[in-house]
């Protein structure tokens, strides 16, 4: 199939590369010339394991090309897939400026019949509005498809190629057949729906995941007070098939470009329709408090943060990505700095050049430099590199061996034996001291 993918971000780049790998002829368009220049030079703007290799081998084969030129991008294309950003607006509704700019460009540049698949996450009703706008001059020229994406950053290629399901919202048999053909390599259930249901599925899925995280964090906070162990609790409830074990990891709350934004969008949608969505408001509030809670723990241990040197290990919103959109680490750094603390931060892949003056922290070359002379260290991203830290060296370098672990990377009893004052999430200090069985 001759495909144009619009948007060369996490979703667009991955979609374009995988389609090209499947043998399609793909042009990927972005309106950021710097980004396109970098990609052509082999320097991808996103950190995603396996993506550079996939992009470069398909560029060599000429099955994947990059452009900023609309005429080049849409020439002879059968399918245009839109994957531009839909960031949160001031009022919680997603900002659809990029999407509508693309739609207007499509209307101006495409003459013949074409399929337009919206892969961006868009509010319920968007595909219908796009179809009305694009077809107002000539009915049936643009065939609109809602094709929400469920990949996660950090495992994007694998998720794209092995999804749990595909959801396709469409109105015509031609669109249905094309999507069946395009996603034929996937071994998963394909659900065909109307546009609105497809759009709603994407938001509902993310809100459910967000709810599961706020749920387990609430239980973790109770465990800390009631002297229970969150790991044993999560295992015990997750084995119930009606609940399931995934997304029950306690920590510093969810971040990233999707879960916070899409939960906020559902709140805004509820307000639009006058439907009570306080459940989702509470999910967001709990998430915010989880970030405050970790700073309070630090503050309590150090008897105030003013003048204290705090090492922050990890900035990305989760491991295996360089993305810091809505990263809990940045919110936590902001609070520490506001309270008078001095932050020295390290992340294996995040570019800290612009972030450090903005958030007022000092970047470190590695984890050991970050913890040197620190009064406390806070671990905020679960990078593999941190599992391999020489903990005795870390302890020696610190002013005092206080480690607040927002990701529960280490076994509390081992940390205690190593001489750390170790504070994980969801396990009380008494529990670590008194438990006869391993706690993590
Ligand atoms: N990131 C994820 O893990 C993920 C997963 C599933 C769904 N989504 C959804 O997919 C969409 C894209 O997300 P992303 O993370 O890839 O975004 P992103 O910000 O990484 O990339 C968007 C790209 O679109 C480009 N763009 C903006 N306006 C344009 C225009 N007029 N013409 C051409 N290009 C334009 C930008 O320059 C940017 O490169 C969002 O709606 C998001 O909610 C994201
Ligand atoms: O048990 C868990 C699981 C995740 N998280 C946190 O939740 C956030 C989101 O994690 P994850 O969902 O793995 O990352 P995303 O790449 O944001 O992916 C989500 O958002 C995408 C964009 O819509 C969807 O496509 C994916 O299906 C959905 O999982 C991160 O801060 C994680 O640290 C937890 O705290 N506990």
TrEMBL record:
Pfam families: UDPG_MGDP_dh, UDPG_MGDP_dh_C, UDPG_MGDP_dh_N. Belongs to the UDP-glucose/GDP-mannose dehydrogenase family. NAD(+) binds at residues 30, 35, 86, 121, 261, 325. It comes from Effusibacillus lacus. Keywords: NAD, Oxidoreductase. Substrate binds at residues 202, 247-251, 255, 318. The active site is at residue 258. SMART domains: UDPG_MGDP_dh_C. Its EC number is 1.1.1.22. It is an enzyme of class 1 (oxidoreductase). GO terms for biological process: polysaccharide biosynthetic process; UDP-glucuronate biosynthetic process. The keyword NAD applies. It comes from the Bacteria. One of its GO terms (molecular function) is NAD binding. It catalyses: UDP-alpha-D-glucose + 2 NAD(+) + H2O = UDP-alpha-D-glucuronate + 2 NADH + 3 H(+). This is UDP-glucose 6-dehydrogenase. Pathway: Nucleotide-sugar biosynthesis; UDP-alpha-D-glucuronate biosynthesis; UDP-alpha-D-glucuronate from UDP-alpha-D-glucose: step 1/1. Residues 311-412 form the UDP-glucose/GDP-mannose dehydrogenase C-terminal domain.
């Amino acid at each position: 199939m001759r495909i144009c993918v619009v948007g060369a971000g996490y979703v667009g780049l991955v979609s374009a590369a995988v389609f090209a790998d499947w043998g399609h002829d793909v042009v990927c368009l972005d309106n950021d010339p710097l980004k396109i220049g970098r990609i052509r030079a082999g320097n991808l703007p996103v950190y995603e394991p396996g993506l550079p290799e996939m992009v470069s081998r398909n560029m060599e084969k000429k099955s994947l090309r990059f452009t900023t030129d609309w005429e080049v991008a849409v020439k002879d294309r059968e399918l245009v897939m839109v994957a531009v950003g839909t960031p949160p607006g001031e009022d919680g509704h997603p900002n659809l400026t990029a999407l509508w700019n693309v739609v207007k460009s499509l209307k101006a540049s495409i003459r013949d019949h074409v399929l337009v698949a919206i892969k961006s996450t868009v509010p319920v009703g968007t595909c219908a509005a796009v179809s009305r706008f694009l077809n107002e001059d000539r009915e049936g020229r643009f065939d609109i498809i809602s094709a929400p994406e469920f990949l996660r950053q950090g495992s994007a290629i694998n998720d794209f190629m092995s999804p749990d399901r595909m959801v396709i919202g469409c109105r015509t048999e031609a669109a249905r057949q094309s999507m069946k053909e395009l996603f034929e390599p996937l071994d998963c259930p394909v659900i065909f729906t109307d546009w609105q249901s497809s759009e709603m599925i994407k938001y509902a899925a993310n809100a459910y995941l967000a709810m599961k995280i706020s749920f387990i964090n609430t239980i973790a906070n109770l465990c800390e007070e009631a002297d229970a162990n969150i790991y044993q609790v999560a295992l015990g409830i997750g084995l119930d098939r009606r609940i399931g074990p995934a997304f029950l990891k306690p920590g510093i709350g969810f971040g990233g470009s999707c879960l916070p934004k899409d939960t906020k969008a559902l709140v805004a949608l509820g307000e639009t329709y006058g439907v009570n969505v306080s459940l989702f408001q509470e999910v967001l509030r709990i998430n915010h408090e989880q970030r405050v809670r970790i700073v309070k723990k630090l503050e309590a241990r150090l008897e105030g943060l003013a003048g204290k040197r705090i090492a922050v290990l990890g900035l990305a919103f989760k491991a295996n990505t360089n993305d810091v959109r809505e990263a809990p680490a940045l919110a936590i750094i902001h609070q520490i700095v506001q309270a008078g603390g001095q932050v020295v931060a390290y992340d294996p892949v995040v570019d800290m050049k612009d972030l450090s003056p903005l958030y007022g922290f000092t970047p470190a070359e590695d984890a050991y430099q970050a913890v040197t002379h620190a009064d406390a260290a806070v671990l905020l991203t679960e990078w593999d590199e941190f599992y391999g830290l020489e903990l005795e060296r870390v302890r020696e370098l610190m002013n005092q061996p206080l480690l607040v672990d927002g990701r529960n990377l280490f076994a509390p009893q081992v940390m205690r034996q190593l001489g750390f004052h170790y504070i994980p999430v969801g396990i009380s200090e008494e529990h670590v001291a008194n438990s006869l069985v391993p706690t993590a």
